[in-house]
Amino acid sequence: MKKLTTGFLIGFIGLLSTAEASNLRHHPNHLFVKMKQGEELVKSPLIKSAKKLFGNLYLVKTTNIEQLAGTLNDSGSVEYIQKDFFAGKSEMPKHEILDEAGLLVKRLQHFDFTSFNDPEVGKLWAFNSKAGLDVSGAYDALPSTEAKEIIVAVVDTGVDHNHEDLKDIMWSNEKEIRGNGIDDDNNGYIDDIHGLNTLVRDAQGRATMNTMASHWHGTHVAGTIAATQNNGTGIAGVANNVKIMAIRTVPDNADELDSDIVEAFLYAANNGAKVINCSFGKKVNEGGMVVRDTINQISKKGVIVVASAGNDSSGPFSWHNNDVDQKFPASFDSENLLVIASTTSSGGLSSFSNIGPTTVDVGSPGSNIYSTINGNRYSMASGTSMAAPNASGVVAMVMGYNPTLKNTTIKKILMDSVTMVPEFKGRIVTGGRLNLKSALLKAAARRNTPRI
To answer: What's the CATH number where 109 sits?
Structure first.
């Protein structure tokens, strides 16, 4: 599926005009500069420093972005110039108080998933086969071989890596010596043990290492993907073969910066992540292709980016169509981007979930999702932000059991193995909901099919 070419969580609105985009907030000293093929970065006294991101793309620091932009355009050797935009401030969502949803919790507790001894796993309706991902069925019929470990980067508000259900599944940079103040692995970052914090920088402008959660959201996402299974504690994540790389890039007011998103994606891919969960987005793209180009670049390292579709709908009477009113990064035209709508415990589309017959790929459970939050606690939340990590867990499992398959092949298998839902026809690309058991079976068949 080819998407249209053209933040955080619920507050996506459509593409603004060029005049409106020019008034959006941006970093006062940053310009993205992509040079034409074969051209070197133009030399100018206005450039105070320049960091090559990949290929011909640079992040340039200057004291006069307008004057520098004019100089670069006059050179004739530039493919594009883009300001470094903020997503826009918005209120973070509230997790759902369990006492207020008590009837729902009691109804969900009847699920008996025999593959798990985690005491609250019965609240994970997404594990069932009738309306969920058939996680339980998949675990009852897993192959005898062990899945390869997959690193999933949670680009979010940070993760509580001391949580009782997360501490054992956190990624650790084994090449880095904790707390010695040295970049031991020469990856450009000091003491990046569990990931990266692009929101706090040192005197040299480098992202720092404190990835602890500043908001419950990132911790909730991490738990859904990979909370430790069968530890007799709390819940279970979808995947049993995951290490969570925490990348704190989204501020508590949801005002993420394009350059931070780009750095987060590149860091994740360069340090071994094969899945990147993006439970964030923004309402305007400003005409820029920097994040899109980055997603395409990391596809070369076998990465799948899982993005939430957005939560602007008021279904069933008014569905927000991303084909018409685009959202980012969900609307970028990247083959390794998997865009997720939200579904309910009754199997239908969540009333808040955006749709898109050509831009939203597949459904995944996102209403009333019970997961980890900061401080060894648990709670429910709803949104395509919750649907995306359920999907990321499925992606990681299929990748882990099929490490020889390309990321684009994995994506196709996931989309071809959905549980079809009549209501979804004409609203999302596949017309169905992810199914872990079916995806594993289809991937195994694909892997074992002789090539002629």
So the answer is: 3.40.50.200
